[in-house]
Amino acid sequence: MNASRPGPARSLTIPGIAAAAVALADRGGLDAVTMRSVAAAVGTSAPALYRYVASRDELLGHMVDLVSAELRHPEPSGDWVGDLLAVTEQQVVLHREHRWLGAASTAVMGPHVLDHLEWGMAVLAPLGAPTTAVMEALALANGVAALFGAAGPAAGPEIFRNLDAARHPALTAALANAAPGPPADDLLRRVLTGILTAVLGR
Amino acid sequence: MNASRPGPARSLTIPGIAAAAVALADRGGLDAVTMRSVAAAVGTSAPALYRYVASRDELLGHMVDLVSAELRHPEPSGDWVGDLLAVTEQQVVLHREHRWLGAASTAVMGPHVLDHLEWGMAVLAPLGAPTTAVMEALALANGVAALFGAAGPAAGPEIFRNLDAARHPALTAALANAAPGPPADDLLRRVLTGILTAVLGR
DNA sequence: TCCTATCTGCGAACAACGTTAACAGATATT
DNA sequence: AATATCTGTTAACGTTGTTCGCAGATAGGA
User: Which residues form the DNA-binding region (chains A, B) (predicted)?
Assistant: First the structure.
């Protein structure tokens, strides 16, 4: 831990700052993550944060990487669908616990996000599919995880304010007798296998 | 066109305002859509816009609805996969022409967005699947369209700044000899059919 | 030991944003 | 003609991300 550099030692760390920002976003959404609020949460001043991050977007990237570090990647077992499904389920939980994840623009991928891609490449390597197809499959898996995590009662019935019973009869009837509940348990597995076989052609 | 109401007539329309906002967003992203810039584009003042929209978020909703109006929904032909694929391809084009579409939070669905859902319900009605499954299938189709539209050279190689050849060897090798190009033509069809059959179980 | 270079964190400030308040002018109904 | 009501504008408020200097602290070199 030798700094070997003049000047006082830094009192904060990027993971610490990102963790405070994540806690704020979990409570009040991404709008609650302001430079001033994060600074107050870690006990410092807003301009001091710019000694650690170049911009707010970079801080958001650190947040994404921090929560992505929670993913546990099992050793590739040969059952590539099962392996991928296990991690995708974790991603769904991640998106459900941190509903800001999908909106956090990842302008630059953090190391843990890259770890996930690396693991996915290793899992799908035995298939011998072209790398572009593998990347597309992984991107689709990520997107499906985001969709499943964001689903459910994300917003109230205000979304259907413009619903007109005369113009949208089928939709009106469908919403009347069937509120959109959480997706079925095995739906993610079915969709994921459907996507993977469609993309990788196996 | 009788207003039958005192006071001067309004000089603007919501579609006109939304069209100007769409043009701004197409050029400079969603950040370029500020109340002042939109007002300048339509030749008025920022506070005057609040006579037409209650908030900036509502304006964003009008933008989403305006571009969603471009969707052409064919008469259901019985070939529900083909019908759905035709419209989903249009949605991909829409997301590619308006890359801000995915980021525009739809707090309230406009009439044309509801039209799309209504049409989807009608297309999938002959299957006799539970309404929740149909809604899930349509939501997934929308999400896949957004994913396909957002794919490609959306951002430069800055995304992989944190790539470490020692930590991510497979990824490094994959990126070296295969730049992520646009998805194959028939990929969307394969993925969509895979998802639909997985969700609707047919 | 003292000096100096260099780093940290802070107070003030700036431009831009969404939004509101109060007001002048225009217009259709009475 | 009088009145009520709607429109659009100017000014302003609070908040945001970000930058500018500056005071203070600290480690290495003399």
Answer: 34-53
